[in-house]
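TICKET: design request
STATUS: open
ATTACHED STRUCTURE:
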């Protein structure tokens, strides 16, 4: 080990390894095989680099192992209990399986998602789980070309197996719950309004279908303007409802806890009319049970979804099925 304060360079390592600086650089940046250098030289350079306290490139340090044991996950948001729960459970389950988890947040930006996928593959991730990805097939196609397994979570794709919530069934059950409470509490039969999300998104589309199915079960028609799916943000939900002034009993199906924030803001400003509103949310937060007017929430089974996804890790069969995991309906 060098005792002076001078930082170790590749030239120092080259001298100690009896190799050229360019060969040392190739070993440290992971391109030594392309240079047709020997594994014995690569091992020697890496050993000396560690002994000398050199900050070895992460890719290069993987050269001495048959497997990286890295598993990556892309998530769209951290400021959401659902995705935060997924990320936390993913890390714990990965470590229980002797895998090293790497999680990155991509803000629902398809370009950030793809860049994150490329980076994770460059670090020799053995599997990449795309959670709520806007373009999962682009990621899966890249992973396949790179020899890396990919799995979709929360939103499905067609080029890799997908594990998602049973959005349709849970939305149908939640709609029935809200309508039952509107009938028992307010003496009102509906129809409800659907607030939040985007029609073109898979999960929102499936939830709208479940929402419509529950109304059809009761023979209730839904006016087109009752489907208020124009974005996820709290501000969007609040602005949509600010343009709607309930003149009598009203029921709302809220599509996420993000939209719920805007709904609660709107509801708080109704004054005495708040007592004539009942709503439920397809998403879960333990504080939800304390919100006036909230009759229930849907909790997606994160543990079961991740267990199902991890059961697919290492499976190379070309089965592109979509596995739907039942949700839990929590009445308040």
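STATUS: resolved
RESOLUTION: sequence designed for all positions
ATTACHED SEQUENCE:
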């Amino acid at each position: 080990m060098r005792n002076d304060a001078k930082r170790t360079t590749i030239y120092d390592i080259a001298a100690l390894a009896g190799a050229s600086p360019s060969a040392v650089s190739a070993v440290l940046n992971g391109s030594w095989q392309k240079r047709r250098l020997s594994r014995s030289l690569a091992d020697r350079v890496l050993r000396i680099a560690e002994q000398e306290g050199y900050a070895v490139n992460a890719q290069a340090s993987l050269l001495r192992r048959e497997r990286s044991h890295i598993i990556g996950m892309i998530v769209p948001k951290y400021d959401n209990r659902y995705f935060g729960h997924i990320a936390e459970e993913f890390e714990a389950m990965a470590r229980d399986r002797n895998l090293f988890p790497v999680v990155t947040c991509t803000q629902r930006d398809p370009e950030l998602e793809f860049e994150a996928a490329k980076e994770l593959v460059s670090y020799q991730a053995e599997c990449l789980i795309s959670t709520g990805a806007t373009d999962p097939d682009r990621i899966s196609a890249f992973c396949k070309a790179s020899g890396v397994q990919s799995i979709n979570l929360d939103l499905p794709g067609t080029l890799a197996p997908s594990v998602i919530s049973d959005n349709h069934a849970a939305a149908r059950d939640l709609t029935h719950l809200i309508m039952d409470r509107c009938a028992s509490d307010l003496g009102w039969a509906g129809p409800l309004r659907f607030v939040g999300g985007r029609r073109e998104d898979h999960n929102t589309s499936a939830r709208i279908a479940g929402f419509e199915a529950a109304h059809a079960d009761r023979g209730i028609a839904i006016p087109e303007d009752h489907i208020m799916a124009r974005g996820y943000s709290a501000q969007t939900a609040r602005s949509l409802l600010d343009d709607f002034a309930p003149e009598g009993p009203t029921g709302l199906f809220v599509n996420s806890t993000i939209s719920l924030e805007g709904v609660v803001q709107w509801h708080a400003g109704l004054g005495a009319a708040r007592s004539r509103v009942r709503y439920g949310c397809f998403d879960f937060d333990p504080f939800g049970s304390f919100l006036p007017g909230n009759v229930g929430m849907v909790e997606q089974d994160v543990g079961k979804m991740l267990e199902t996804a991890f059961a697919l890790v290492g499976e190379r069969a070309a089965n592109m099925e979509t596995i739907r995991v039942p949700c839990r309906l929590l009445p308040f």
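CLOSING REMARK: The radius of gyration is 26 Å. Residues 242 and 267 are 10 Å apart (CA to CA).
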